[in-house]
Amino acid sequence: MTRGPKPKENAQRRNKHEHAQTLSGAATEGRALPPGLGIKSAGAKRFWKTWATSPQATQWAETDWAELEITTRLVDGFYQGDMKLASEIRQRVAKWGATTEDRARLRMSIEDDAQDQDQAAEAATADPTTDLDEELYRLLSE
After folding, report:
1. pTM metric for this prediction
2. Which residues are 60's β-sheet partners?
3. Do the Cβ atoms of 39 and 3 come closer than 8 Å?
4. Distance between CA atoms of 90 and 95, rounded to whole angstroms?
5. Which among 15, 67, 85, 110 is placed 20 to 30 Å from 95, CA to CA?
6. Per-residue tens of pLDDT for the chain, all 142 residues
């Protein structure tokens, strides 16, 4: 047995959050990795490229880009073997909406565009810094 009155047949949800945002899924040009950061690992370079061209980056202010620089340095340290940095990296990328759960918490959604996803996949395979096997082999053999 249910409680309360029966819902209306054409009930509409009216409690949309005032700060909810929908981002375009189109690939963005982003920014180039600053050479002054001294990034050495291919994983950190991939991390920068992924976030710099993400839909979230279209909304970033200079302070967000500064955070990306700091986090990329942490990722570089992680790929060089400092595993203690993993939790800090995870906390930082969660604030940008790294996972589906993070984006739901931030009330952020990204429009899907299949053509843009295909182009992004082609660009990722064409990038020489994406040789994950080589980097993984190097990390495991140390």
Report:
1. 0.66
2. none
3. no
4. 9
5. 15
6. 567 887 777 766 666 666 666 666 666 778 899 999 999 999 999 999 998 988 888 887 999 999 999 999 999 999 999 999 999 999 999 998 888 898 888 777 777 765 555 665 665 555 555 577 777 777 778 7
Contact 22, 110 (CB under 8 A): yes
3-state secondary structure of 107: coil
Q: How far is CA 67 from the centre of its chain?
A: 13
Sorted by where each begins, the domain ranges of the chain are 39-120+130-140
Q: Which of 105, 87, 84 shows the shortest CA–CA distance to 96?
A: 105
User: Could you identify the residue written with the tokens 């082999």?
Assistant: 137
Single-letter code of the amino acid located at 70: I
